[in-house]
Amino acid sequence: MAGRGPHGRTERRSSGELESEVLATLWSTERPLTPAEIQLEIGGDLAYNTVHTILKRLYDKGLVLREVDGRRGAYRPAKNAAELTAQAMHEALDRGPDPIAALRQFVTGLSPEEERALRELLTRGPA
After folding, report:
1. Count of alpha carbons within 13 angstroms of residue 2, beta-carbon side
2. pLDDT category, 69, cuts 50, 70, 90?
3. Helix, strand or coil for residue 14?
4. Helical H runs in the chain?
């Protein structure tokens, strides 16, 4: 949500922040949402046109799917949050010159709980 800056002006959210808010809203429900429903859920001063623009960007990136019911379009996420995060992690590893070194660095930064979960996944496989 946009807040007030040090000079009393409303701070604008970046497009990345807005995309994240829209995705979080879509992930929070089991059904597709219209732009108006998303606008209402996010609240604040977000204009309908802004929500529609964000949805178009997310659609163009393949992050949301559009379902048409008559003239009314509703959107749902193409992937759940875990799938999207895993995809981003794979893409990051593919971009680097040494994916094993990157994995080593990643693993050293895991919390004890995350480390236990990773060890379990590696020994037992995904559930």
Report:
1. 14
2. confident
3. coil
4. 15-27, 35-42, 48-60, 81-95, 99-108, 112-124
- Cα separation, 118 vs 106, whole angstroms: 12
Q: Which amino acid is at 102?
A: A
> What Å distances lie between residue 39 and 15, 29, 117, CA to CA?
15, 14, 36
The reported pTM is 0.71
Q: What is the pLDDT of residues 77-87, one digit of tens each?
A: 999 999 999 99
Rounded Cα distance between 103 and 90, Å, is: 11
Q: Which residues contact 103 (CB under 8 A, 6 or more apart)?
A: 93
Q: What are phi and psi of 69, to 5 degrees?
A: -125, 95
Place of tokens 């998303």: 38
The distance of Cα 45 from the centroid of its chain, to the nearest Å, equals 21
Tokens of 36: 């108006």
20: which 2 tokens? 């994240």
